[in-house]
Structures are given as structure tokens and as C-alpha cells.
């Protein structure tokens, strides 16, 4: 997270992840492999999915028995394309079942379940994850974790794409919507090849 409560990242499919993984094994710091099950919710009184682009997501995560809750509000340009960053508020959760009961009492409805295995490395100012997502396939996420609070999200995400190309990933296909949207509305996803 570059700023407090701001996340700058890209999510892509790459033609070949092997050169990236080899590069990270040699030059990065392996942080581990985890299964993450993310359940997304929307309030009945304010349906997050009603408008496009979907900008708000409320997630409960089970990462191998460690639980968290995250709210994200993505920023978009006038054309509806992601500006590559979001406001993010995250906290640990002691009991995921109790949190689900609270959500139910508040009339928050479960809308999507994303089940993935994530391998994570850090390299310089990036956290790089290689995800294998059930029903969606394999993806790479690169997140800026540097300390520069004045960083330009567009510049940084351009550098992320250049990094992936430099290590030999081949064709890079970006989506600007994230896993839950890919699962819920696959026909609405607009991809960008870089």
C-alpha cells in the first residue's frame, strides 16, 4: 500500500509466467503460498452491482485461517476506465462466522466467492502475486508497496507493465475490474492487451 488506505495495483494475464517466477526466485523475497477464499458482499439498500463500472467491494477473506475484512472504492476516469488505484480500508477479523452473522443482520448479501492459491514475492517497491483462481485461471497481480506518498498511480502502473515485459512474460492482457467482476459479469469485461 503506497499511501495509508490507498492501493495501487494491476491485475493481468500473462502469456508466460515462468520467466517471472524464475526471476522472482532469484531476485525477489518469497513471502509464501496461501489459499485465499474471498467472499464479497453488497448491502441490499445500496446495491454495489447496480452501477457500472462497479467501484465498491466489501470482502471477507479467509487466508489459511487468518481472517480479514476489506472495503475498496475504486477510482475511474470519465470514460469508466480504472485509474489504477482505490481507497482501501482493511482490518483483521477474529471470527469470520460471527462477522457473517453481523453482515446478515445488516442485510448484506453474499454476491461472489473467489477461491485462489496465491504465491507472493516482494521485489523492490512491488509485491507480486501469482494467483491460480478457481474457474478463472492464472493471473499476476503487482501492487506498489513503496513509501512515496506523492507517487503517480498511472506512472507506477506503467512501470509495472514494463517490468513484466522486461522479465519476458510475453503478451500482457489487463482487466480493470478484478476477480469478483470477472466471475459475475464475464461478458462485460473489456480487456486491454499491452
TrEMBL record:
Gene3D superfamilies: Hypothetical Protein Pfu-838710-001
CDD domains: CYTH-like_AC_IV-like
InterPro entries: Adenylyl_cyclase_CyaB (IPR008173), CYTH-like_dom_sf (IPR033469), CYTH_domain (IPR023577)
Superkingdom field: Bacteria
Name of a matching Pfam family: CYTH
Residue ranges of every copy of the CYTH domain listed in the record: 5-182
Alphabetical list of PROSITE patterns matching this protein: CYTH
Protein name as it appears in the record: CYTH domain-containing protein
Lineage summary: Bacteria, Candidatus Roizmaniibacteriota
